Amino acid sequence: MPELNLDGLVGPTHNYAGLSLGNLAATSNAGQESAPRKAALQGLAKMRLLVSLGVPQGLLLPHRRPNTGLLRAMGFGGIDAEVAAAAAREDAPLLAAACSASAMWTANAATVSPAADTADGRTHLTVANLATMAHRAQEWPETLAQLRLAFADRRFFAVHGPVPPAFGDEGAANHMRLCSGHEAPGLEVFVHGENRGGRFPARQHPRASQAVARKHGVDMALFTAQAARAIEAGAFHNDVVAVANETVLFAHEAAFENRTETLEALAARVPGFTLVEAPEAEVPLADAIASYVFNAALVSLGEGMALILPAEARETPSVSGWLDRVVADPGNPIGQIHVLDLRESMRNGGGPACLRLRVALPEEAHAAIDPRFLLDDARLDRLERLVERYWPERIAPSDLSVPQFWADTADAHAALLAQLGIAPEELGLPG
Ligand code: SUG
Predict the structure, then answer these.
(1) 294 with 252: CB under 8 angstroms?
(2) Which end of the chain has less neighbouring CB within 10 Å, N or C?
């Protein structure tokens, strides 16, 4: 059984607020107009491609935004229109945080350890605390509610609350798994950051990674550091410079602080380990990060693997030339390349890999997932129509405090839940 991909549906408040220091795409697009409808349709087209490739596909839902609870907890009071106006006047970045659609990047929703890796033989999921960035730290309670609903069957799944916020955890974006096949036991690779004295924060604390492995009962683990140089160059998560699937690691030469040691450990512990690495001399780190080539989704098909790339990877000459060279090698593991336009998400630093949470599952566990989170073409058609009807075409920063915008996004969210047959109370939301 290939693994399930749970993509985040882009929410109706998708906007460019430049909230993530160290995420160069997001900070350089701060203040631009966004196109939420187009963003959500681009994401749905990605999900449709995966369905057409025969990969099980599901979704996680956008969170209810604006998060008035956050604004009220920060001291803004009155009716919603007063809260919005005062927040816009006194703390525009906080208002933007409360409006952020950042839950769309579900690689940061949780860390997943498949059943074959864990002590009790269940699939374990730990929701990520996302403690480093204010706009992302508000996500975990609603994400946890969705995971508890989707993976409610305790015979197969254990869903854990977050690691304490003293230790930043950004979920699967800093976690890889190497294995002979998705149902076989794997080596789980936890990549943390350390960037003392750097300009940009390291968002994954090593103790958070260790805690997740402990909670999941994972013995076969490797802990390694992201290169501080990569963080400084804008790789705010490991998945900006590396992705793994089965025995294959697809990565940039500058991904790990201790490259040689890390690669030797992988070669020693993963039978058939295959490295597809871009040398710095051929693909400069800046090009790798700007193009998001390593934020590709590398997925197993019935036969071979497909690499799902953002269009930017083919538009960057050094990257595209290297890719051509890789696939021309008859021994290379990548059988197909698919190129997607995900520009709306990309402009906030979110590529194909950021938009999905991978859950490798045995067949009977797959059947136990709440089917309301699973997708097929008919469901995708209905979601597209819903997005076309309810998602705003454009958002400028000044729209975030407009009462009609708040009302419209609430309607959009309610219509989505109704279409999926999920009651707000099931997610712990007021009705
Ligand atoms: O956390 N961008 C996200 C992008 C997350 C990408 N995820 C992975 N690499 N897995 C982030 O930096 C930008 C929002 C803004 O600035 O408005 C943002 O949150």
Answers:
(1) yes
(2) C
